[in-house]
Amino acid sequence: MIDVLKVTDSVTVDPFNVMLKPRGAICNLDCKYCYYLRKEDLYPNSSFRMEKNVLEKFVKEYIAAQAGPEVVFSWQGGEPTLMGIDYFRQAVEFQAKYSRPGIRVTNAFQTNGVLIDDEWCSFFRDNEFLLGISLDGPIELHDAYRVDKGGDGTFDDVMRGIDYVQRYQVDYNILTTVHSVNSKHPLTVYKFLRDTIGAKYIQFIPIVEKMNVYGTDQWSVSERSVQSEDYGDFLLSIYDEWVARDVGTIFVQIFDVALAAWSGMRPGLCVFEETCGSALAMEHNGDLYSCDHFVEQDHLLGNLMDGNIVDLVSSSQQKEFGLAKRDDLPKYCLECEVRFVCNGGCPKNRFIFTPEGDDGLNYLCAGYKQFFTGINISMNYMASLLKNNRPASDVMAWIEIEKLDWIRRVNSVNRNDSCPCGSGKKYKKCCMI
Ligand code: SF4
Ligand code: SF4
């Protein structure tokens, strides 16, 4: 919920983030699952370049509107490197001009990585940009859908970009989309990112492309989309590897989100927050939309150049958009044991029916349920460690002891005994299989 405190030149609303699209939907690649490329159609005959006056007004009002000590600028696309470095030098100058004592301005820059070179890396390092680089796994998985305008795979180009980033010691994280191809190879993806790339910060974003079932009012998904159960399997397989050996050294966004929720804190990622409304998107011409996934006429809040950003962010239209996420949850979610962490997921994916026939269930529900219930025991353990001022990474020693105990119990059990896992079945019909 957004509270408006009208103050002239600083602190006006609760924290919000705006995903900036300085080059609109224009990109040098043609990734087959990209939902944003088609947004080019919203602006026929446009130059698709954010003008200097739009940039300056945004920087000024955005900084003034943020109450917290850190102000994060999020650059996205399309592909933001297509604006050229000078554009971002200008942005950084505006940030310095409108910053105020006691705040820290930072920049998060999402890129496909293929245009990154020495000059970009010098700039990123000198200005402490945090990069997000899109990489879907090793070459055969990455190139399945991440292709250039000629339809060729982009793996080698991205790896070259990552090499630059690492040589210049620019901070980065890897954003991996989970789709129908790489979802079948969770540990191949994870071990590649961890061991070959050396990534420390990883995000897994599910690809869900909603499609109408021809001749009906039902919805399905494209063949590129991840199957819901596969998404659950994918996350659980990686989690099992991570919780046994990588806690505290590798940071996977959805695992951090879960630990926050298990510790009684807010998840910190809009998808799992109770309400939406604080993650907006701004197109190159200053049009502000409710969210990056709702860049469409019905969710246009107005244009930055026609007023103050605070009025748009705190508008009743945006409040309604945000609250709908909570208020439209089906009964099935309201009664769900993992709602405290899931909150029904992103509204853009709520297009299937519950077992009772109510609409508005998230397409990824089965996967979420499987994942969040599957991590419950170790999450509870880590949450209690944190509560007792111990590092969450102590969970790894506990798992090792549990494993040894399990092996001991399995070694001493006969095939006709009750299974040591506690299922109530005979061992030979349960874990022995
Ligand atoms: S609609 Fe989805 S992506 Fe947008 S703010 Fe809500 S949860 Fe986040
Ligand atoms: S797991 Fe499924 S039922 Fe539970 S809150 Fe999430 S979407 Fe709703």
Folded structure, characterized:
This protein has 433 residues and is an alpha/beta fold. Helices cover 36% and strands 14% of the residues. It is built from 15 helices and 14 strands. The protein has helices at residues 52-65, 85-98, 118-126, 139-142, 155-167, 186-197, 228-245, 253-262, 309-313, 316-327, 331-334, 339-342, 365-374, 376-387, 395-411, and strands at 17-20, 70-75, 104-111, 130-134, 171-178, 201-206, 210-212, 219-221, 251-252, 279-282, 287-289, 300-303, 350-352, 361-362. It has a 10-stranded mixed beta sheet. A two-stranded antiparallel sheet has the order 7-8. α7 (228-245) packs parallel to α13 (365-374). Residues 1-12 have low confidence and may be disordered.
The share of residues in extended strands comes to 5-15%
- How many runs of DSSP E, i.e. beta strands? 14
Q: How are helices and strands ordered from N to C?
A: EHEHEHEHHEHEEEHEHEEEHHHHEEHHH
The rough form would be described as globular
| Cross-sheet strand order for the largest sheet | 9-6-5-4-3-2-1-10-11-12
Low-confidence stretches: 1-12
Q: Please give the count of helices.
A: 15
